[in-house]
Specification:
The complex is a heterotrimer of chains A (about 475), B (about 475) and C (about 450). With about 475 residues, chain A is α/β, with parallel strands linked by helices. Chain A contains 24 helices and 9 strands. The chains are: A alpha/beta (about 475), B alpha+beta (about 475), C alpha+beta (about 450). At the B-C interface, β9, α7, α8, α10 and α15 of B face β8, α6, β10, α9 and α14 of C.
Amino acid sequence: MVSAPDRHSDAGEHMGGGIDAGHGFPYGLPFEGSLNDGPGFAGSDAPAEADLYRCVHCGLCLSACPTYVETRLETESPRGRIALMKAVHEGRTGISDRLVSHWELCLQCRACEAVCPSGVPYGRLMEHTRAQVQDNGLQSPELGRLSRLFLRTALPHNGRLRLAGHLMRFYQRSGLQQLVRKSRLLSLLPGDLAAMEAQMPVMGRQFFGARGQVFPAQGERRMTVGLLSGCVMPLMQGDAMRAAVRVLQRNGCDVAVPPTQGCCGALNLHAGDLELGRRMARRNIDAFKQAGVDVVVTASAGCGSSMKEYGDLLHDDPHYADAAHEFARNTRDITEFLAALPLDTPRGQLPWRVTMQDPCHLAHAQRITEAPRQVLRSIPGLDLVEMAESSLCCGSAGFYSLIQRDMSQRLQRRKIDNAAATGAEVIASANPGCIGQLEQGLRDAGSDARVMHVVEILDAAYQAER
Amino acid sequence: MTSYEFLENIRTVVGDDYVIAHQEDLLVYEYDGSVDRSMPGAVVLPADTDQVSRVMRIAYEAGLTVVGRGSGTGLSGGAITPPEGLQIAFPRMNRILDVDTVNRTALVEPGVINLDLDNHVRGFGMRYAPDPSSQRACSLGGNIAENAGGPHCLAYGATTNHVIGMEVVLEDGEVVHLGGLAREAAGYDLRGAFVGSEGTFGITTKILVRLLPLPETVRTFLGIFPDIDSACTAVSAVIGHGIVPAALEMIDALSIKAVQNVTDAGYPNDAGAVLLIELEGLNEEVDEVSGEVEAALWDTGAADVRVAEDDAERERLWVGRKTAFGAFGTIAPNYYLVDGVVPRTRLTQMLRKVSEVSERYGITIANVFHAGDGNLHPCMLFDAREPGVMENAMAAAAELMEECALLGGTLSGEHGIGLEKKEFMPLVYTDADMAAMQRVREAFAPENRLNPGKIFPDGSYWRPAAHPAALTVGIYA
Amino acid sequence: MTTTPSIAGQLAELIGPSAIVDAGDLGGYAIGQWLPVVAAKPPNADEVAEVMSWAHRTGVAVYPSAGRTSTQLGNAPARPGIALDLAGLNRLVDFQPADLTVSVEAGATIAQLDEALAQDGKHVPIAAPIADRATIGGTLATGISGPLRSAYGLPRDWLIGISVVGADGTQTKAGGKVVKNVTGYDLNRLYTGSLGTLAVITEATFKLAPAPTDWAVILAAFDGVDSAANAAQNLQSQYYAPLGLHILTGEAAQRIDPSMGESALAVAVSGGRPASMKRRVEDTVGLWSPVAGTVRVARGDEANGLIRTLTDLPADAETPPSMCVRINAPPSALPEVLAFANVPMGNLPPPSVVADVGFGGGRLLWWGDPESADPENVATGLRGIQSAAGRLGGAAIIERCPDDAKVHFDVWGEQPSGMQIMRRLKRQFDPQNILNPGRFVGGL
C-alpha cells in the first residue's frame, strides 16, 4: 500500500455535511453483515497493485461477462470482482466466504479481458486471488474436494488419469452406467457426487497416448512440431487427437509427441494452485526441449492459453525464466498454426452447415477468432454460419460445470439455443472442455447436431478426397 | 416502520435475491465511472415499473433518499449514493419492448444498453443516434439522466433530441407519463426539463426514443496535421465553410501515441494531431461536401488526408478514438479529465491555455475531444501515488474550467455536474439562475428525496474517497 | 386594484412616459374582447424587470406580447391587467457565423433574424406565420413551428441559451452560448412553449445551421387522400426524403396551387446543395409521376413563395382562416388525420386538412364566417375533435376559434399527464399568478 494524500485516506466517508440525507432512519439502514476482518492478501503471489488499479471501473466489461449477463448483478461482474479484490488489497475487508463465492462464480473465460480498453490482466488477477483464497483454506467445500480429488491427485499424473479413464470407459460402455442410472443408487449419493456422475465426460472409444512417437510428414517436410497430448483430451477425444496428427502430417510436419510431457497445469492455475502449476509447466518445458521441436502445437485452446503464459508464470524462476519465455513464444493453437501455413486446401467436398463456437481461451485469452474460421472456409462445400453470442462462454470452463452446476447449465442452454437457431448440423469448436459441454447440451436437448473439433472437420474433408 | 421492516417490505416487492444489504456485496455498488465512492445503505434491483413504484413509495414513507443507477459508467458521480440512501439499480429492466418502423420509434426499459438498442434497430434499417463513447456499457436511463452526448451529436443533437416520451416514477411512487408518440403536447415541456436532470426529478421506467433512418452513404476522413494549432484552424475552416459533419473529432499527438500503443488504429505516429471527420447523407451530397472538406483540410496545412476505404477501416479509425482514454493507461496509471465547452472559434486559444497549464503545473495533458462542437476533454495524466499530485491536478482542472467560462463556454458538455463540478457552478450561473433551476426541482420532487446534494454548490465537500492508486476518472469521453 | 391613470402613471415613472403606449392604441393589444388597462413597451430587459417588479409588488396581471400574430392562441385572459410589449427589444445581440451561434432579443422578428443570418449563408430553421411580424420571443413562447419541422425539429431543438425576467422581476439566464451543454437543468425547453406563464423571455441564443442554397417544392395532385397518403409515405421512407412533406385538401390545397383542382395535394419541400437537389427532385418526380395525376416542380422564387404560403396557412395576414385546430398525433395516424376532411362539424362544413406526413399530425382549417355558427355548437364540434384526436394517441389544440365559443371549453384540450407537476411549476415560478393568467392549459 502506498502513502496516500490525507484527503483520500479515509475511504468512503464524506465531510462537511456532504450529501444532505436529512431524512430516513436515524442510524441508517441495517446492514445485514459488515465488512469482515478475515485474512487479507499476502506474499509474493498476491494480486499486484499495478494490475488492480489498471481497472478504472468503466463498466465496458459488463456486457461481455456471461455471469453478469445471466444474473444482472454487479457482484457477479468482472468490475465487481476486481472491486472486491481492491477492497481486500486496501485492507477494508478480509477474504470471506461471501467474497469467495463471487470470485468462484467467475468462469475465467476472460471475455472481459478482450474488451477491456485499459488492458487489465483479469485472468492473472483472478488466478492470484484464487491462490490467496486457497492459501487461506477458504475455497468452497465443492472446489476444495474437487481440487484434492482431481486437480492435485489425478491431473499431474498421466498414469492415474489413464487408469481412471479406463474405469470410466468400462463404466460407460459395459452397460453398468445405464444400470446404475436406472437404479436408484444415484439418489443415495450426496448431491454434488450425483451431479458429477451425470456430467461425467463420455470417454472416447480409443484413447490417444503420448508414447514418444514421431509421425512423419507427408510430402515435403516443412518442420517438426511437438504436439501436446495433455491430460484428459487423449482420453475423451482421442479421435480429435488423431485427426490433429493426420492434419499436421498432411501439411508437411513431422509430429513429435514427447513421452515425458504431461498436463499443462491450466486447471490448477485457474483454481489458484500456482505452485503445482509451475511444476507442471517446468515438466512440459523440459519434455519439448528434449524433443527438439520447432514449435509446440496444441489442439486444446485452454492448454494453449496457459502455455503461452508460462513466461509470466515462471518469470521469477532463475532456472526456467528464459526457457519459459521461449516456450511461450513457440506455442501455437493448432488452428492458428494451420491458418498461418500455406494450408493444403482439401479437395474433398463437405456439404455441411457448420457454426463456430469460440472457445473462451482461444477467442479471449489468445484473441484468435479468425484462424478457425479461415480453416473452415477453406473446405469446399462447407457452409459456415455465425451464431449469436458465439464467443459467450458455454459454461464448461474446466471444472466449473461440476462446481457451479446451475450457472453452467444456464450458459449451456443459452449456447445450445444460439447454435440451434442457425440450423447448423455441426458445431465446430477447438477445446476439449467446450466439446464435452456442447455434446452433453445437445444430448439434453435431444438434438441431432454433432460437435467436432475444427481439425476433425478438416481431417474429414481430407478423407473425403478419396 | 423500522429499518428492518423497511428491508422486509422491499424484499416482498422485488424478491430476496434483489435486495442487497450486506456490506461485502455493497462494495460493488459504491462506485460509478468517476473518482467518487460511497457505500449505499442498500441496493434494490426492480424488474418492472410496478416494483419501482412500490419500492419508491415505501422509501418515501420511510423518509429515505433514493439514487438511481444504470450501468454505473457516469463520470460526474451521478450514481454515487450516500450511506443513508437506497440505490435503485436497473440492470434487470433491460428489455426492448417495441420497435415501430412507421413512427420510427422504440420503446425500451431504462436498463437497455445504448449499443444494444442501436444494434437491434439497425436490423430494421434505423439507428439510435446518440453514441457516447461508453455506449457498449451505458444504459438509456443513465443517458437520460445525464443528457448524454457522443461524437455524432454534432449533427444529430444529444439525448434530449432523441427521447420523445418517458414513463417516470416520482419520489412518492406516483407514475407519470411525459411526452409521447405525438411530438408536441399542450402544457410545459416536462420531458425536456427532465432529460439531463441527473436523477433529481424522478426515476425513468420506460423510454420512447426517436430513431433515424440509416444514411445512404457514410464517408470517414482522417486529416493529419503537423500540430494542434493547424488542426484547430481546420476545424474552424470546415464549420466556417457551412459544413456540419456528422462527427468531427480531434486526437492530439500524445493521444495518438497512447492509442497506437494499444491498437493500430491507423493514426500516423509522427502527426501533431489528427482530425476524424465523418460525413453522412445522400451519395451526391457526400460527394459534393467531401471535396470541400478535403480542400479545407489541405488549405489549413494538412500533411495528409486519408479516406477510409471500407467499413473495416472506418471501424478501425473509430476504435482508436473510442478506446483512447483506456489507452492512457500505457502512459500513466491515472488520469482526470475535464469536460468543458468553448465556442468553436476559441478552440485554439483554449488549447494554448491547456498547454500553458500543463507546463505550469508540470502535468502531462492529453487531448481527445469533440472538436466540432467545442467540447474539450483535456485529460491530465499522472501517478497519484506521488504525494500532492492529485491536488495539483484538481487545481489545474479548476483553472481550465475557469478558462472555459471566461471564453464564453461552460463546465460540462456531456458528463454532467454531479458531485464533481457542483462547486464550480457559480462560474457560469448566478445565484438567481440557480434558484430558478431549483424551482423546477421543487416542482418535480418537493421533498428533495432524489439524488440530493448533486449539481448545486452547497459548500460541502464531497471527498473523492477512492484508493489513491484508483483516482482515475472513467475512460470515456 | 388601483385606478387606470395611476397604473399608467406608476409605470411611466418607472420606465419613462415614452415607454407607455398611447391609450388610443390599446385596441392593438386586444385578446379577443379583452383589452389591457395599460400597455408598456420597455426598450430593454432592465426595464422589463422594472415592470415585472412592479407587477410583483402590486399583483397586477401582465400579458406579454410583441408581434401579436398569435393572440388568438389560448383561453381568454382570467382578469384585467397590462400588456407588456416586447417589440422594443429587437436587437441582434451577437452573431458568430464561425461558431454557428446567434443571440437575439426577444422582440426581433423572424424575418429580421433570417435576413441577418442569410448574409452569411446561415439560418435558424424555425418558422412562424407572418414572419415580418412574428417575433423570436413569441415563437418560443408559443412553441410554434413551421412546415419543415419533421426534418428540422421544433424551436426548442435550436435554442441553446435564454434570458428571462421572472414573475418577481429577477433576471435570470439558462443554457449559454455553446452548442453542447449539460451544465444545470435545461430551462430552455421549459420556457419554450410555456406561453409566457413562467417568465418573460427577453433574449435567446440559437445554434445555427448552414442554409440550403437551393430550394424546390414538388407538388403532386392525387385523386384522393388515400393515394396521396401512400405516395407520400413511400417518399418519406426514401433516402431522398424531403425536409417537409404535407398532404393538403380543400381550400388549403387551392391556396397552394389553384391549378391542381379539387384533389388531394401532396407537397414536398426539398432543400440542399445543387448536386443533391438534382437527385432529390428527379427521384421524387420519378417516384410520384406514375401514381399522381399531375406533378409539378417549383424552383427559386416560386419555391420560396410556396414555402411562405405553406407556413402562413394557419394565420396569414390578409385572409386568415376563421378557425384553426392543431392536431398532435404520431405519423402512423396519417389516415385518421386526413379523415377529418370528411367530417362536418356542427353547422360548419368539413375542414380543409394540412397533414404533416413526416412529423405526424397537422392542422384543420376553416375559412369563411364563423359568426354565423352558434358558439355552443362550435364548442361541441371542437370538443368532439379533441376527443377524436385523443383516441389517435394525440391531442387537438384549438389555435383559433370565435371568442364566445372559448367560454365553453379549454382550447388546449384534456389536461395532459403530469398536470400536478405543471401546477407546482407554475406556483414555484409565479406564485401570485400574474403572468398571462387563465390563458394556458387548465388555467396555468
